[in-house]
Every structure is written in structure tokens, then in C-alpha cells.
Specification:
single chain; 383 residues; alpha/beta; Rossmann fold; Dihydrodipicolinate Reductase, domain 2; 2 domains; nine-stranded mixed β-sheet; seven-stranded mixed β-sheet
């Protein structure tokens, strides 16, 4: 047995997502388990260096987790040949230049989504990576949620028969920041800083729909800024210039219709913060973050509309839980393990920068649909 150390430049890990999902629950969790097992009993051990602009935050984070390496210099990090992967979890507007520099330095690149803030730069980054012959990937974490993995299992088994439609509900109430602190950073609500729920969530819905149900053909989207005034991390009021809700309809291949509401201005009355209901000729399913329930056509009740009497049917009792049938890990950690094996062992990894560009494309088209108040087709991307 041997352990191969893999140096990873982790940029933007002082933020909420970077610290919790990527550093703590992914890279450090992989280290705690002894690495990523590969062929012949060998292991890949991630060796991160934390990169950012705030030395105090980096040092504090380093000391919290056993003295991890840290730096405020991208150039110095890229110059180290032992650090072969560049990971980026910065705000979207900062990602392109840093990822481009990493590609030019010969580093393999893995980044959060959206991969950049425009389709033009997203495709440019993907093509530069291909020309440099480096491995590249984009975080597409929701594909690894237990509920959606169960949903994918149902689709692949033919459970639904012919799929007719999908209805998705995502979101929760993000406090304005005055009488209770907001759960999300203030830049999310400023379009000039790359904020907006359309830019954020339509990237997710692209890869979820494409990979689990069917490819997206067209989109009609209506955005809204329901809360026009919010308070930032210093309790100062600011004008919210970005959309905080999006109501979208997607036309998929095979005449499937998907409707997904995304909102940071909604109070939750459902089992999880995100749910997807898929209806087909032979059965239906409702999937959330972890759970997935199904109703086969043989167990579908036969309601009759009659508002003059109390409803005689308990609509919940004829649904069944889809069993786990496997040990589900944190979705970010699972994709990190796959990317590490892709880099070192050349195993498949389909979620590359071109797939990330598809998400950027759909977000741009969603914004265009909103501003034009029209249906917009989704053309294929040229690699």
C-alpha cells in the first residue's frame, strides 16, 4: 500500500461554502478517512494550501485545522510544482482570471459554479483547458444528493413509463438583515457583484434536468426582486439590485415540461428545502435532498372534485419510500473524490468546464427571457 499526496490550491475557502462544504466536509473528511482508495490498495491524500486575500482569516482557518498551509499570493501558489490542482470557490466575478492563470500554469482546474459570469468567458476557459491538455471540472453537487440519486435510479429503471412533467420548488426565507442576520452574503442581492437567483440556480437546474430527466430545449423565465432593501454584514442598508426569485418553465426533449420556482422570499411548507415531483404515465415520484417517495399507477387513488364535502382521501398514505440501498456520502465530497481520481488515475469525469458552460448559458438565456418576456431556445454549444 502507498499514499500519493496531491497538492491542491484552494482559493476562496474562507467563505461559507468554501469552508464548510469543500474544506471541512470534503478535503479534510477525505484526509480523516485516510485518503481516496484507488487501485491495488493505494490511496490519494489531498494536501491543501489555503489561498485568499485576508491573511488573518487564512491563518485562523489554518490554526483551526492543524496548521494547514496558506498563502495570499496566487503567483507563488501556481509556481509550486507539487500543487497540481487549482480549486476556485471565490465569488463568480473573480473566477475567470484566476482559473485562466492556473490553466496557463499547467494546473488541473476544478471550480464552483457558475464557472464564470458570462457564456463567452465560460467557453473560453473550457477551450483553454482543452488546449492545455489539463483535467478540468465544475461542481455539480446536486447530482450527488441522495434524493436525486434515488430519482435517477427510478428514471433509469423505467419506473415512470413516459415522463410527462416535473415540478420543482426551491428556496426559503432569507432574512433581510435588520431584525435578524441574513443567512446568505449580501453580494447575492447585488447584480453589480454577480448576485441574483437566476444566475445562481438556473446553473443547477441545467445539470439536474440534463443529467436526470432530459436535455433542456427552451426556457421561459420571470425574475423578481421582491425585497428591494436589505442590510449587509455591517448592518448597513443597501438597495437590492439583483433578482431574489425566479419562476421558470423549461421545455425538455421528449415533450417533457419542467416548472421550477426558485425563491429566497418564500416560507417553507414542504418536507425539504428543495423538492421535485416527476409525473409519468406509470407512476410519480417526489424527491428532496435525502428522501424520495413514489406512487405507482396501481396505487393511485381516484379523487372526484366536490368542494361541498370534506376530502375523504389521505393523499399521503399511498406513497412509498424509495430505499437507500447504498451508503450516501456528502455530495461535495463524493465529487471531490471522483475528480481526484480523474486527475491521477484518468478515470472518467463528465462534469467538465463545457458542462459548466451549459449552466452559464441557461442562466443568460433565463435573464434574456425575463427582459424580453419571451420563450428562448437553448442552442447546442460548440466545444
Amino acid at each position: 500500500m502507498s499514499i500519493q499526496h496531491v497538492g491542491i490550491i484552494m482559493s476562496g475557502v474562507t467563505g461559507r461554502m468554501g469552508t464548510n462544504q469543500h474544506l471541512l466536509r470534503s478535503i479534510l473528511a477525505i484526509r480523516d478517512q485516510g485518503g481516496v482508495p484507488v487501485r491495488d490498495g493505494d490511496f490519494l491524500m489531498p494536501d491543501p494550501i489555503l489561498l485568499g486575500r485576508n491573511a488573518k482569516k487564512l491563518q485562523a482557518l489554518s490554526e483551526m485545522y492543524d496548521g494547514l498551509r496558506w498563502s495570499t499570493s496566487l503567483e507563488e501558489c501556481l509556481a509550486n510544482p507539487d500543487d497540481i490542482i487549482y480549486f476556485d470557490a471565490q465569488t463568480t466575478s473573480q473566477r475567470y482570471e484566476c482559473a485562466k492563470a492556473a490553466i496557463e500554469a499547467g494546473k488541473h482546474v476544478y471550480c464552483e459554479k457558475p464557472s464564470t459570469d458570462s457564456l463567452e468567458t465560460a467557453l473560453e476557459l473550457a477551450r483553454l483547458a482543452e488546449q492545455a491538455d489539463i483535467k478540468h471540472g465544475v461542481v455539480q453537487d446536486k447530482l450527488f444528493l441522495p434524493g436525486l440519486m434515488k430519482l435517477k435510479r427510478l428514471v433509469d429503471s423505467g419506473f415512470f413509463g413516459r415522463i410527462l412533467s416535473i415540478r420543482g420548488e426551491f428556496g426559503y426565507w432569507v432574512f433581510e438583515g435588520d431584525w435578524q442576520p441574513a443567512q446568505r452574503p449580501s453580494w447575492n442581492y447585488r447584480s453589480e457583484d454577480g448576485g441574483g437567483i437566476i444566475v445562481d440556480m438556473l446553473c443547477h437546474w441545467r445539470y439536474v434536468l440534463d443529467n436526470i430527466i432530459a436535455p433542456v430545449k427552451s426556457v421561459m423565465c420571470l425574475g423578481a426582486t421582491h425585497i428591494p432593501r436589505r442590510f449587509d454584514e455591517q448592518s448597513s442598508a443597501y438597495v437590492a439590485t439583483a433578482d431574489d426569485a425566479a419562476y421558470a418553465i423549461f421545455e425538455l426533449e421528449n415533450d417533457i415540461v419542467a416548472q421550477i420556482n426558485s425563491s429566497w422570499c418564500v416560507r417553507v411548507y414542504r418536507d425539504e428545502l428543495v423538492t421535485f415531483q416527476v409525473d409519468g404515465t406509470h407512476g410519480s415520484a417526489v424527491a428532496g435532498l435525502r428522501e424520495c417517495k413514489v406512487q405507482h399507477r396501481a396505487f393511485t387513488p381516484k379523487p372526484v372534485w366536490n368542494p361541498d364535502v370534506s376530502n375523504p382521501i389521505n393523499f399521503y398514505e399511498n406513497w412509498q419510500d424509495v430505499p437507500d440501498n447504498q451508503n450516501f456520502q456528502n455530495g461535495f465530497k463524493t465529487q471531490w473524490e471522483l475528480f481526484l481520481k480523474h486527475v491521477v488515475c484518468d478515470t472518467p469525469f463528465p462534469w467538465d468546464l463545457f458542462e459548466g458552460a451549459k449552466g452559464v448559458q441557461l442562466a443568460e438565456l433565463g435573464l434574456r427571457s425575463w427582459h424580453e418576456r419571451s420563450w428562448v431556445n437553448v442552442p447546442p454549444l460548440e466545444r
